[in-house]
Specification:
Blueprint (H helix, E strand, L loop, with lengths): L3 H11 L4 H10 L2 H19 L2 E4 L1 E6 L25 H13 L4 E6 L7 H14 L4 E5 L5 H9 L4 E3 L7 H7 L5 H14 L2 E8 L6 H14 L3 E6 L16 H14 L9 H6 L3 H7 L4 E2 L6 H4 L15 H14 L3 E3 L6 H7 L7
Parallel strand pairs: 1-8, 1-9, 2-3, 3-4, 4-5, 5-6, 6-7
Helix pairs in contact: 1-3, 2-9, 3-10, 4-5, 6-8, 9-10
Bound molecules: S-adenosyl-L-homocysteine.
């Protein structure tokens, strides 16, 4: 018999569980124990971050992608998407508007679009930092060479989001015909070594994904110790090879958010748009089980619909100012406070004050 009470207490007290323990927990957890898990995750978040929720303005600047991920609506093979690419000036305009709305982190996300060369990105980063030296810039542009990552951090990028997507090598390679599992991991390690605040993460409910795979996702995160962790349900998109598959559930995604909070307690965890898409209160629920970041979209309304990674994505008809205040209301109604600061991770902050002691 698995002693779930012991596993929950161990996770809460030690912030550690083995792969076998996580798998047992996921296989056997019931409604009542889930509530205990959620409550412990909330208390853990409060110890590290209090009641604060950080906002990031998200600019989805291009839906052009050279990769062909089986789950993703903007994969290269999807000929039905209308493609767009914002110019550097348009991206700067989004940042101006985001700054006016109070955001002090901009997340620049796109498909893997090599039109944005290292030179173009470096110039863009310089321009944003010249205008707004105090903001943090997060890139989420997929796989590039280490030298490019190096130039981008030198030009002012602070953070980099790149989900590992799944810790199962077999599943990863099935879902990513144009990408290699080892390369993804090598990119994440390189980004970390270069000094970025790194975000990894995964989807929950992928076709063929097992509880043991999800346990590996958490173990991988525990080893990598990322500053940010993005977790969302897989949501099928009809114009992809996985269009007829079942998606992930809200409950499973929330359990994974809560476990991520317990195992990597000092990380920043967004309440993802995918969670908000699955359930009208999905993001608020995530905040109540350990998430502490929300990323309102500041992409121009004219192209939002085209950045359709999955179907029925929320907020596609809204304007940046709608999202700003809608999110603030939601955060407050869930019982938390908006923090408009840069919101660095506790791990990053403590890295900065590490004192080297002489031998
Ligand atoms: N090209 C960038 C950004 C990817 S899009 C990169 O490679 O990092 C951001 C995230 O959306 C992906 O990492 C993936 O986890 C998620 N995503 C894509 N399609 C999805 C789907 N159908 N359902 C849920 N999440 C999806």
């Amino acid at each position: 018999m698995v002693n779930l009470h012991y596993l929950l207490e161990k996770a809460y007290q030690t912030n550690d569980l083995t792969k076998e323990e996580i798998t047992d927990l996921l296989e056997n957890i019931t409604h009542e124990e889930r509530e205990v898990l959620f409550n412990n995750a909330l208390k853990t978040k409060q110890v590290y971050y209090g009641n604060k929720v950080y906002l990031r303005g998200l600019v989805e600047f291009s839906n052009i992608c050279r990769q062909d991920c089986l789950y993703c609506g903007i994969r290269a093979s999807n000929t039905k998407v209308k493609r767009y690419r914002l110019t550097p000036q348009e991206i700067l305009d989004c940042c101006d508007q985001g700054y006016q709305l109070g955001y002090r982190t901009f997340v620049l996300q796109s498909g893997e679009d090599l039109w944005y060369t290292e030179g173009i990105l470096v110039a863009l980063l310089h321009a944003i930092k010249r205008r707004y030296p105090e903001v943090a810039i997060t890139l989420s542009i997929g796989e590039r060479g280490v030298e490019t990552y190096q130039s981008l951090i030198a030009a002012g990028a602070d953070r980099f989001l790149m989900r590992h997507e799944t810790a199962s090598k077999e599943l990863y390679e099935k879902l990513h015909p144009t990408m290699r599992f080892d390369n993804r991991r090598a990119c994440l390690t390189a980004l970390k070594n270069l000094g970025y605040q790194v975000g990894a993460g995964f989807m929950v409910g992928l076709p063929g994904q097992t509880f043991a795979d999800l346990a590996d996702d958490l173990r991988y995160l525990k080893e990598l110790r990322p500053d940010m962790i993005g977790i969302g349900p897989f949501i099928p998109h009809s114009e992809t090879p996985l269009g007829a598959e079942k998606g992930g559930t809200l409950e499973d995604a929330l359990v994974m958010v809560a476990l991520a909070r317990l195992l990597i307690p000092d990380s920043l965890i967004p309440a993802t748009t995918a969670l908000g898409t699955l359930h009208p209160q999905g993001r608020e629920l995530a905040l109540k089980v350990g998430a502490n970041v929300v990323m309102p979209i500041i992409t121009p309304t004219s192209v939002r619909k085209q950045y359709e990674l999955y179907e029925n994505k929320i907020c596609v008809d809204d304007h940046p100012e709608d999202c700003r205040f809608c999110i603030e209301r939601r955060i407050q109604s869930a019982g938390f406070e908006v923090d408009l600061g840069r919101g660095d991770s506790q791990q990053f902050i403590s890295r900065g004050i590490d004192i080297e002691l002489p031998d």
